[in-house]
Structures are given as C-alpha cells and as structure tokens.
Amino acid sequence: MHRESLFRKNTETVHAVKGISFTIQDGERVGLIGVNGAGKTSTIKMMTGILTPTEGEILINGFVPVQRKREFLSQIGVSMGQRSCLFYDIALKESFRYYKEVYQVSDSDYSQRIDVFDQMLNIQELMDIPVRKLSFGQRKKAELVCALLHLPRVIFLDEPTIGLDVVVKENIFQFLTMLNQKYQTTILLTTHELESIEKFCQRIILLKNGRVLYDGALNRFAGMEDYRKISIPKRSYKERGFTFPNAVEVGDDVEFTINIRESDFSGLFRNMIFSDFTIRRLSLGDLIKQLEGEL
Amino acid sequence: MKILMQFIRISVKRILAYPNEIYMVFLQAFVSVVSTALFWAVLFSGEEAYGHSQEFVYILAMIALLSNGVQELFFGLRDLEYLVQAGEFDRYLYLPRSPLLLRLGETLPVVPMCQQILIALAGIALVTVRFGIMLTPGRFLKCVGFLLLGTVYYQMIYGAVTFLCLRTENISSLRDLIFQFGDYKQYPLGIFPIVIRFFLTYIIPMGLVAYYPTVLLLGLDEPLPQLYLAMPLAAAACWWSYRTSIKKYASNGG
C-alpha cells in the first residue's frame, strides 16, 4: 500500500540539464534541438538570466546572465514563442514605443530600424491596429520586432515560428538571416520545426534528457551526408526481392534507408525508370528519430 | 523619465480603448465613498460616536479613498502570483530595467487612480466647508506626506509577503489575509484595544494610511507612531524576500 504523508512532501530533485558545455562564436546560427523535456528551454532560460543554475558557469559576452546586469540585458534579445510581450488592447505602435524606451533606443535609431524591419516584415501597415485585432502571424512578427528593436548582439529564440503558416515562417527566417548577416548577430534557436533548423542553422546542439548528445555542424550530424532515403512502390520492392531491414510501408510505397558509402547504389536500381522511385537525403527529423530509437 | 511617460501613456490608451470603463471606475469610487459616509451618518445619533466627531470620520473616509488612489501605484503587485504561476514573469527578467519597476509601470491604472484621488479631494473640501473646518497648507502637506510614508510602509510589508510567491508560487491565502484587513482603514483607530491598534499600525498598517493622516490633517493632539525602526525593518524584509526568492524562481515548463 502506498501511503502519502499529508504534511511532509516527498521531493525528488530532477535535473533539467546536467553537465552540458558548449561555446558559441560571434555571428553563429545555432539550433538547440531535442524532444520535449530535453532541456532546451531550461538552457535558454539559464542563458538569459531567468533561471539560476544550481551548478556550473555560464558566460555570455563576458557576463554572468543570472546577475542580470543592465549592459548584459541590453545586448540580448529574447523571444519566447508561447509568451506575449505586447499590450493586447492598444495599437501596436504603443508596444513598439514602450520597448524603445525600455531599451533606450534613440528616436532616429528607432525610425531607421522600424523602416529596415518593415522591408522584411511589413509592420508599418499594422502600427495603428490594436494588438487584439492582429492575426496570429502578425502578432508573432510584432513580438519579434519588440525583442530586436535594440539590435541585440545575441538573440535567443524559443519556438519563434510555432503555429505559423509557411509564408510567415519563411518571412521570419529571411528577416533573421538578414540580421545575422548584416549585424553579425549570434542566434540561438530552439524549435521542433526541424526543417527550419536545416534551412537556417549551420550548427546544431542536440539535447536528450538534459545532456548534449551532439554538438557540431549540421551536415555532419549522424553521418547525414552518408545516407539516402529511398521510396519505391510496394510492387517493385517485392518484384526485386528487396529485404532491407529498416524498410517501412508508407501508403503504397516502401521506404528504406541506405548508406551510400556501403551499398552498391548504382546497381540497386538498374533497369528501373525514374518515376518508379524517389531518393532524398535524410532529414534532421529522420536522423533524430533514428537516434532516439537507438538510444 | 521617458519610461514613466510611456507607462502613463499606455495606461491612458488602455482605458480609452474601453471608454465605458471610465464611467464604471468613477461610479465605483463614488458609490464606495458615499456608502461609507452613509454608514457613519446612520451610526451617529448625536455629535460624537466612540469619542470621534462626525467630521473626523467623514474626513477619515475621504482619506481612506485618497490612500486607495495612491495605493494604485502598486497595483501590479496584486497579481504577481498569477504571473509567476503562468511563467509570465520571465519576460521582466530579461529586460534591461528593474523587473518590479516594469511590472508596476505596465499595470499602472492612471485613470482610476486620478479619479479616486479627485473624488477624495473633493470630498475633503466638501466636509471642510460643511463642518467649517479650518485647514492649513502645512497640515495638508503633513497629512499627504504621512499618507505616502504609510503607503510605502504598507506596500513594503505587502511586498515582502508577495515576493515569496517567486519561490513558493502560491501565496494567495496569506495575501488575502492582508486584504481582509483592508476595511479597517475606514474605522478610527481609537475604537480598538491597544493590541489591535499596534497590529493595525505596525503589522498590517491600515492606521498609517488613513487614520494618522486624518489626525494630522485635522491638527489633533495625538502621538504619531514612530517609524524610525519599523521602516528600515520593513524595507529590509521586502528586499530580503525579493532577493532570496528571485534566486529560487523556477519559471514553468516550455
């Protein structure tokens, strides 16, 4: 029988992250990835001074985040995808003006930056609309502007494009790329949308249960370049007597992965016409699923 | 200074987004003060009750409303607990300004604050004329000064309790306990036994925000509480509570 005390709380310490260590250079675009509960958001919250780590040391541009020095906080920009920083009932421009004062951006810099941001995100036309009347995508763009009005040296983005359509998503990543290239801004991004990571980040840090599983170039992740995913109709798969151990049925097709360095890639599809099969690189998602299965 | 102007601007814009709210807030403050005055009017059979004159309790009601108006400056502390529970406090921690200043500024209810202060001042003027009270600018300034001091002292005690929510995440029972004493500011402190008087002066200082300012305004001969020790103690408790609790702040999941 399990007895639980009414007055004494049994507590168990759970480490959100444990023993993680990495260095990010100026101007890098890094994707912090992992399944739910891997420790991505906790890592970002410690790096931005929201959470106090129980052990270890974090330095961002020479500052200890948890000390929350004004010089440090003026150099970072944070956007938490599931939180809003806008004033819901009033015109969007009031939120922008507010953050302009919070970050002490001069009038001329403010106008200039709004113009630059507008070219990418079309925000001028939204200025007089109350935030509550904006669409979800428009709000997200506005949130990003608020977080970046002061042109931070380091940007932390936690699920910045969650729930957005492809057009707005594309728009936001173009904008972030512009900031990265024009101002050498360092960007640390977490998202479950791995296609965005593939397009945007040169480097990934994969977390699992609070530990770093991989830290390095995206194209070298789990031998990404060595594998190809093949999809052929079930009929052809049977006729040719294929028996790949990792084959799975997907609709009318069979999908399997081959290592192009080990397999006789050219001989595999001899006498097949192109419309019969498709070959593609493994996506980051495929690799992570594969790794999760193995670990 | 610029950020202060922005707080005010946002507060006014917010209330203008819902114009009906202006009348509602005015009505609420007006009804509140009239009902208190009515309460005392019914209670008084003669010139005095419990050793206090009618003009004293009417002025006390107005000063209590004035203090409500001033306390609106700290409105943002009231829902700090819910902010913490929802993880919404995070965003104040990565902005390059004091998180508390931003919280208080963003939630500053300028219009309700001004309305309550104006109704209270009008009420004081009305009672003064009706009862032929002689007010001097010096007494008025002393009254306002003490009211501000009392409000800061009260808010430091309230803050010391409220900031614990940063570590415990739930503090509403204790917070509501303080709120339960809110109505005590409507009553003359003299009607209570000495222990309650001490409690309402130094622990939950309702007497400081209404009763003693009234005494000063009317120029009555009554000893004032000594805050030389209490004030730094309250400030230290408030500071300690915030500094230690913020280190334990755990936010919430992604």
Any overview of this molecule?
- The complex is a heterodimer of chains A (295) and B (254).
- Chain A is of the alpha/beta class and 295 residues long.
- Chain A has 2 domains: 29-209, P-loop containing nucleotide triphosphate hydrolases (Rossmann fold); 226-294, no CATH class.
- Chain A contains 10 helices and 10 strands.
- Chain A has helices spanning 40-47, 70-73, 92-102, 107-121, 136-148, 166-183, 194-200, 234-239, 265-268, 284-294, and strands at residues 29-33, 76-80, 154-158, 186-190, 203-208, 211-217, 227-233, 248-250, 253-259, 278-281.
- In chain A, strands 2-3-4-1-5-6 form a 6-stranded mixed sheet, sandwiched between helices.
- In chain A, α3 runs parallel beside α5.
- With 254 residues, chain B is mostly helical.
- Chain B has one domain.
- In chain B, 70% of the residues lie in helices and 2% in strands.
- A two-stranded antiparallel sheet of chain B has the order 1-2.
- In chain B, β1 and β2 (52-53) form a beta hairpin.
- The mean pLDDT of chain B is 87.
- The A-B interface holds A 36, 40-41, 45, 48-52, 68, 70, 73-74, 76, 78, 80, 82-83, 85, 87, 89-91, 94, 97-98, 101-104, 130, 158-159 and B 2-3, 6, 9-10, 13-14, 17-18, 87-88, 90-91, 93-97, 102, 106, 247-251, 253-254.
